[in-house]
């Protein structure tokens, strides 16, 4: 396993601060080096809402490996073909959206683990890393669950009690959670705050790393104080837009 994955796993297990961003549309193989040099711990590629699909990510995953930057794919759904293929193409783990049933977690584990833990098939250009044996795979690929509803929050304690040894970390999807509770896109309504805090408390109880998608870095301090340690912030597009806006404002201020 790479040094980058060793560090990521250690930080997850000890609930240290972790920094990530999401790629939705731009898959340039130049980006991993930029993100690695900037200090990110891992990347999330969005196969759920973005323009990527499993067949298109192989070269990007290889570029991530070349600079030792772990890449996690948020998959379209909790089904075998959605979970297994990104790993075949070189992803270091998967993020399961809309997690709110035991059956989803069982499907995720079965789809991404080889015997005796699951029933994943063998194949793909990026399945194994240099020097990695097939039986190293189960411990070297990471499973993240995305909690996006009250049902998911209510079931989380049972999920982590039963499958905690298989789950690397938890991430909250605030937009879907707010919409599902009738809050629209008000991400700070009282019901949202209650569910977020319940999720954090459950993860603390089980010693699991927890984070949430955050539009920008302005809210990091607040959620760190609330007990989060994974900072999944912005996308490649929002970061580019922020930099362009800041640079243009600097020029306007001359």
Output mean pLDDT: 94
Biggest sheet architecture:
8 strands, parallel, barrel
Give the structural class.
alpha/beta
Q: What radius of gyration results from the CA coordinates? A: 18 Å
Mass-distribution shape: globular
Proportion of residues in extended strands: 15-25%
Runs with pLDDT <50, length 5+?
A: none
Q: What pattern of helices and strands is seen along the backbone?
A: HEHEHEHEHHEHEHHEHEH
Percent range of helical residues: 40-55%
Count of discrete alpha- or pi-helical segments spanning 4 or more residues: 11
Give the distance, in angstroms, between the N- and C-terminal Cα atoms. 49 Å
- Number of separate strands: 8
| Biggest sheet strand line-up | 1-2-3-4-5-6-7-8
Summarize the structure in words.
The chain is α/β, with parallel strands linked by helices and 254 residues long. Helices cover 45% and strands 16% of the residues. It contains 11 helices and 8 strands. It has an 8-stranded parallel barrel, surrounded by 8 helices. α7 runs parallel beside α9 (190-206). It is globular.
């Amino acid at each position: 396993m790479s040094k980058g994955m060793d560090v990521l796993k250690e930080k997850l297990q000890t609930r240290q601060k972790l920094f990530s961003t999401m790629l939705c549309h731009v898959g340039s193989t130049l980006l991993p080096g930029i993100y690695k040099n900037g200090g990110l711990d891992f990347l999330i590629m969005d196969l759920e809402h973005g323009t990527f699909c499993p067949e298109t990510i192989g070269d990007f995953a290889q570029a991530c490996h070349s600079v030792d930057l772990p890449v996690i794919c948020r998959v379209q759904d909790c089904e075998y073909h959605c979970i297994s293929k990104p790993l075949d193409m070189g992803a270091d783990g998967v993020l399961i959206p809309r997690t709110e049933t035991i059956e989803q977690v069982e499907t995720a584990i079965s789809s991404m683990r080889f015997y005796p833990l699951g029933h994943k098939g063998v194949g793909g250009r990026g399945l194994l890393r240099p020097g990695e044996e097939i039986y190293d795979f189960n411990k070297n690929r990471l499973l993240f669950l995305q909690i996006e509803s009250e049902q998911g929050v209510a079931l989380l304690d049972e999920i982590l009690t039963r499958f905690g040894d298989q789950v690397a970390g938890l991430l909250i999807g605030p937009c879907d959670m707010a919409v599902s509770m009738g809050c629209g896109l008000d991400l700070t309504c009282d019901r949202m705050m209650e569910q977020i805090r319940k999720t954090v408390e459950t993860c603390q109880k089980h010693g699991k790393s927890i984070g949430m998608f955050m539009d920008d870095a302005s809210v990091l301090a607040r959620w760190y104080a609330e007990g989060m340690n994974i900072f999944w912030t912005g996308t490649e597009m929002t970061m580019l837009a922020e930099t362009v806006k800041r640079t243009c404002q600097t020029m306007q201020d001359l």
